[in-house]
Amino acid sequence: MFGTLSDEVEVKVSADKAWQLYGTLELADIAAKYIVDEIEIIEGNGGVGTIIKITFKPGSGISYYKEKYTVVDDEKRVKEAEVIEGGYLDFGFTLFRVRFEIKDSPNDETSSSCLIKTTIEYEVKEEAAANASFATIDPFVALNKFASEHLLNSA
Q: Where's the Bet v I/Major latex protein domain (predicted)?
């Protein structure tokens, strides 16, 4: 069973400024501050191949997972990470990928705002199809809210 979830938010900062946050490990710092219990960099510096371990707050249903950055495209301002251990994989998912895309807002000719699109792609084994409901965009919507506040306050 394959599925996708997505969310898009407009932020009143340039796409380049947003990418300076989303395209780096600084986004993980915001997640660690507001969303998750701890983030540990296992290897890498934020580029393709970087592996981070995300430990969730007690009661969140998932204790931890490790994700690997598979795409970090500074030109297109796209970053993708896939879960490679724990978390969703423990619930029968064979794929859990998160993509952030930062685009200039088409309604803003001054380039002073951008669109941040977050997409989750997942695949679940048929025998675990009931667990597909664990896939949710909500933590990423919350992360985008905190990231947007950070961007606006540092403008």
A: 3-153
